[in-house]
């Protein structure tokens, strides 16, 4: 087994667009759950809408900034549609509505009626919408090597996408850091603890929950854009498992922390690739097929995460004291 | 009333004003802060609240008493926007508040606490306090991103929070999570937090429930301090000693209606109120071991009552 190659693969995945996309989605989910206590089970829906918004606008000839704007606007409208009727009700309803709505977005996206717009279940090929982003790159078309990684400068899974992606993640963390420590973040935490108490102190709880839902959804949409800029828009690649992975990443890193979602995403994807690579090297030939190894990788990651949640429920960066106090 | 009158004179005048008020349900007060008219709320077929008319005098402590299920807490919920009435209107400080959301009621200056204390457990004591303050520019999403826009106000409210915490002897706990406080301390915190917004009327729902006797005295002190600093207090309580001790006016509710009103001594002397709502032994200390003895005070009284009933029957 080539350990060097294994670690290169792990590093490649940890810094890659998938990790970036999930980090952004988890940052959004952190605003929903970690800060406000909203249970959004449809973060993949926000990502998919962002992806469609970006890709379709570009295909229709819109410039890069407009494509971003449309993606963000789609997430805002989606959040308002979900939030306006449900946020006055108990938290469970939002969970039900979001998981259903995300599935609706996916079904509509892959329906044959909209094939002209969304490409149906085939989706939209990457080359049809990546050009505006790649043209915005200041780098020459080339392949560059940094340490063990060799990547194209501009196309698909490129240095350019990684640089922009991580810059967006850094900005998002800064943004969340500022908000968590502001009076606005304080109201959200109050809502997470007890809405009625916050209402009794004269805060419009409904409006704050709506703001949190919209803001977190926008980060989901940004994650969706990064996700598809490395591959293609395909409705089924942003389905329910994406939402559940995002939740795992958030809880792994530590909800209600600034860097938790980012650390969670790095570790999640790093561990997954590491386990798969290790199994491929260790398991004797012929006993497991490549597909089976892939599945076993998921199983092992799942078990690891379960153990982590059992023995360290606050996540890696979470505050044990904050979680230990559960008295209402 | 002159505006520049010292607070203690204002309070004294308000309390004296009550002397001329008739002791009947729904009597008019000389300076009413809260006036409720025809407030009705039914759950299924039960009339939980059916208040014809009720006025709450400004600058005094009014107690709302009555047996369990009398509708006291429901009345609180209605007044503060946490529940919607089937009918009725009420005016708070000249503003009609019927159908107004809970947050707006609080903004109007009527702030409540809860029977089951709602301390925000996973926030520090100081953060709990800061949350109570009004007019915080940093509570706007966009302003929150630019610290200079809200930092001055944050300093103001932190100073105010520390003063209040000192008054309630919680200042040493300021960085502890509210969830780590004792039940009594949480009650204090909830009361202090309500005061962060300088409310005109504080509505306390059973402030003494679950508080140990040592803390009761200081809680009572805090409530009278509230009145003496110009805040009107309306509270629900079962502890009759406390009601008698600190309230200036008592309103008795039963089956959703106001059945009696008056100064504490008069209301508690009212035979109808005693029998129906306080119980015949409201005055005896049930913690007194002597009562447990066979033939103690309670037994003697009970026997006397039983005899009297037998005598009345023929």
Q: Mind explaining what this structure looks like?
A:
- The complex is a heterodimer of chains A (328) and B (314).
- Chain A is mostly helical and 328 residues long.
- Chain A has one domain (3-324): ABC transporter involved in vitamin B12 uptake, BtuC (Orthogonal Bundle), CATH 1.10.3470.
- In chain A, 70% of the residues lie in helices and 2% in strands.
- Chain A is built from 15 helices and two strands.
- Chain A has helices at residues 3-14, 17-35, 43-59, 64-86, 91-110, 115-118, 131-135, 159-180, 183-193, 195-200, 205-229, 240-253, 260-282, 290-311, 320-324; strands at 143-146, 149-152.
- Chain A is globular.
- The model of chain A has no long low-confidence stretch (mean pLDDT 89).
- By secondary structure, chain B is of the alpha/beta class.
- Chain B has two domains: 7-119 and 181-279, P-loop containing nucleotide triphosphate hydrolases (Rossmann fold, 3-Layer(aba) Sandwich); 284-314, no CATH class.
- Chain B has twelve helices and ten strands.
- Chain B has helices spanning 7-17, 72-79, 102-108, 125-131, 141-144, 147-167, 183-195, 213-228, 240-246, 264-269, 271-278, 297-312; strands at residues 32-43, 46-57, 61-65, 87-92, 95-96, 110-112, 201-205, 232-236, 249-254, 257-262.
- A six-stranded mixed sheet of chain B has the order 6-7-8-3-9-10, sandwiched between helices. Chain B has a four-stranded antiparallel sheet with strand order 2-1-4-5, covered by helices on one side.
- In chain B, helix 4 packs parallel to helix 7 (183-195).
- Chain B is globular and about 70 Å long.
- The N and C termini of chain B lie far apart (59 Å).
- The model of chain B has no long low-confidence stretch (mean pLDDT 82).
- Classes of the chains: A mainly alpha (328), B alpha/beta (314).
């Amino acid at each position: 087994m080539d350990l060097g190659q294994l670690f290169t693969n792990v590093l490649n995945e940890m810094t890659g667009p998938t990790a970036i996309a999930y980090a952004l989605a988890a940052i959004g989910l952190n605003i929903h759950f970690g800060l406000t206590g909203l249970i959004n089970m449809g973060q993949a829906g926000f990502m998919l809408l962002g992806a469609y918004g970006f890709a379709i606008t570009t295909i229709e000839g819109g410039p890069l900034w407009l494509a971003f704007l449309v993606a963000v606007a789609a997430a805002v409208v989606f959040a308002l549609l979900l939030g306006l009727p449900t946020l006055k009700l108990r938290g469970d309803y939002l969970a039900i509505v979001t998981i259903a709505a995300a599935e609706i977005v996916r079904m509509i996206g892959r329906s044959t009626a909209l094939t002209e717009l969304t490409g149906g279940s085939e989706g939209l090929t990457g080359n049809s919408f990546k050009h505006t982003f790649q043209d915005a790159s200041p780098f020459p078309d080339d392949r560059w090597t940094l340490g063990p990684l060799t990547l194209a400068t501009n196309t698909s899974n490129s240095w350019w996408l990684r640089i922009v992606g991580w810059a967006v993640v850094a900005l998002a963390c800064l943004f969340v850091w500022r908000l968590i420590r502001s009076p606005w973040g304080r109201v959200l935490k109050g809502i997470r603890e007890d809405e009625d108490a916050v209402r009794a102190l004269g805060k419009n709880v409904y409006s704050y929950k709506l703001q949190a839902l919209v803001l977190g959804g926008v980060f989901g949409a940004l994650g969706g854009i990064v996700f598809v800029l490395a591959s293609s828009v395909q409705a089924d690649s942003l389905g329910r498992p994406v939402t559940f992975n995002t939740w795992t990443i958030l809880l792994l890193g530590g909800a209600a922390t600034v860097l938790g979602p980012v650390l969670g995403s790095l570790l999640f994807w790093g561990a997954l690739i590491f386990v798969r690579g290790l199994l491929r090297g260790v398991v004797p030939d012929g006993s497991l097929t490549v597909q089976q190894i892939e599945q076993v990788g998921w199983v092992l990651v799942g078990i690891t995460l379960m153990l982590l949640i059992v023995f360290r429920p606050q996540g890696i960066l979470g505050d044990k004291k904050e979680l230990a106090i559960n008295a209402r | 009333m002159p505006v520049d009158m010292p607070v203690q004179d204002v309070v004294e005048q308000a309390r004296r004003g009550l002397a001329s008020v008739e002791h009947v349900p729904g009597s008019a007060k000389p300076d009413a802060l809260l006036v409720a008219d025809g407030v009705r709320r039914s759950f299924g077929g039960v009339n939980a609240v059916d208040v014809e008319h009720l006025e709450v005098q400004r600058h005094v402590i009014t107690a709302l008493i009555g047996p369990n299920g009398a509708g006291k807490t429901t009345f609180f919920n209605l007044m503060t926007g946490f529940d919607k009435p089937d009918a009725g209107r009420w005016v708070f400080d000249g503003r009609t508040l019927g159908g107004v959301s809970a947050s707006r009621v609080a903004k109007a200056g009527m702030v409540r606490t809860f029977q089951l204390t709602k301390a925000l457990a996973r926030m520090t004591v100081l953060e709990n306090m800061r949350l109570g303050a009004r007019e915080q520019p940093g509570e706007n999403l966009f302003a929150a991103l630019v610290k200079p826009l809200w930092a001055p106000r944050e300093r103001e409210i932190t100073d105010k929070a520390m003063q209040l915490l000192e008054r309630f002897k919680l200042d040493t706990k300021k960085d502890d999570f509210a969830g780590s406080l004792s039940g009594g301390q949480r009650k204090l915190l909830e009361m202090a937090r309500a005061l962060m917004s300088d409310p005109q009327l504080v509505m306390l729902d059973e402030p003494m429930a679950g508080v140990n006797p040592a803390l009761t005295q200081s809680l009572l002190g805090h409530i009278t301090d509230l009145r003496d600093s110009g805040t009107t207090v309306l509270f629900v309580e079962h502890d009759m000693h406390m009601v008698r001790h600190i309230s200036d006016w008592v309103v008795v509710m039963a089956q959703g209606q106001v059945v009696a009103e008056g100064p504490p001594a008069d209301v508690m002397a009212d035979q109808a109120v005693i029998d129906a709502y306080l119980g015949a032994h409201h005055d005896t200390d049930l913690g007194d071991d002597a009562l447990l003895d066979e033939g103690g005070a309670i037994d003697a009284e009970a026997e006397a009552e039983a005899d009297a009933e037998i005598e009345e029957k023929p």
